[in-house]
Design brief:
By secondary structure, the protein is α/β, with parallel strands linked by helices. The protein folds into two domains: 169 residues, Rossmann fold (3-Layer(aba) Sandwich); 93 residues, Pantoate--beta-alanine Ligase, Chain: A,domain 2. Helix content is 39%, strand content 20%. It contains eleven helices and nine strands. Helix 2 links the parallel strand 2 and strand 3. The protein is globular, with a radius of gyration of 19 Å. The chain binds pantoate. Pantoate (PAF) binds next to strand 2 and helix 7.
């Protein structure tokens, strides 16, 4: 595995890779969710590039950025074992040198859900993803469904800016008790970790109610999730949403297809999760 720390090194190594090249952007502290992206990428491409960069511009709170878990040596070991060709580990100065002024902003779909609660988050994501795409120039890029809004935003960005990269979305990987894998899970206290699976349980129950036809009303579905999560006083729900899968606008009345998502705080850890309201695949 070749380790590149500068854009020049990455470009030189990338030029020698066979095609097609797949790319998995990450912020490191890898778990099985990331490895599912890497494995899918490896299976579908002749070469795989992974980036590890805790992007400072997508954090709306300095304490969240500072406390974001990091272990690059361990990540490199895991990626090497997976047979990754190149890992790109740039510094913040390499990505944002003095004089940096450009922001990529995707409008409207970034004003809701995560965007409404994390000001500037998606400007940071859209900007860094555009930069990484321009640097790595992959044929395909892999993103996890857990960050559902990020997927919608990156799809829009790629279409609007005519970026010749095919996006592939990989289902959320979960712990045996249903908790969505996230680098943030390690920051949960034992008690917080014990109660966290209720988030997915609440989403799944609402999804089952929708699928069986028992409950199709958007507000009633939101209420079901709030009531279930509300049974656990340690959890503070930030939002529960039933939204259109592309516009991300909140739905009202009967739902025929949608994205059911939530964000919640457990102690000082913010977690997100979602399920799709569609017929059983
Ligand atoms: O999903 C993430 O880990 C990040 O938002 C990404 C796509 C690597 C951009 O920093």
């Amino acid at each position: 595995m070749i380790v590149c720390r500068t854009i020049a090194e990455l470009r030189a190594a990338r030029a020698r890779l066979p095609s097609p090249v797949g790319f998995v952007p990450t912020m490191g502290y890898l778990h099985d969710g990331h490895l599912a992206l890497v494995r899918r990428c490896r299976a579908e491409n002749a070469a795989t590039v992974v980036s590890i960069f805790v992007n400072p511009t997508q954090f709306d709170r300095q304490d969240d950025f500072a406390g974001y878990p990091r272990d690059v040596p361990r990540d490199m070991g895991l990626l090497d074992e997976e047979g990754v060709n190149i890992v790109f580990v740039p510094s913040a100065e390499e990505m944002y040198p003095p004089g940096f002024k450009t922001i990529v902003r995707v409008r409207e779909i970034t004003d809701v859900l995560e965007g409404a609660h994390r000001p500037g988050h998606f400007d940071g994501v859209a900007t860094v993803v555009t930069k990484l795409f321009n640097i790595v120039m992959p044929d395909r890029a892999y993103f996890g469904q857990k960050d559902a809004q990020q997927v919608v935003v990156v799809k829009r960005l790629v279409a609007d800016l005519n970026i010749p990269i095919e996006l592939r979305v990989v289902p959320t990987v979960r712990e045996p008790d249903g908790l969505a894998m996230s680098s943030r899970n390690v920051r949960l206290s034992p008690e917080g970790r014990r109660v966290a699976p209720i988030l997915y349980r609440a989403l799944s129950e609402a999804q089952a109610a929708w699928r069986s036809g028992r409950e199709r009303d958007a507000e009633a579905l939101r209420r079901l999730v709030r009531a279930r999560v509300g049974q656990e006083p340690r959890i503070r729900l930030e939002y529960v949403s039933v939204a259109h899968r592309e516009t991300l606008q909140e739905l009202n009345g009967e739902v025929t297809d949608g994205l059911l998502s939530l964000a919640a705080w457990i102690d000082d850890v913010r977690l997100i999760d979602n399920v799709i309201l569609e017929e059983e695949p």
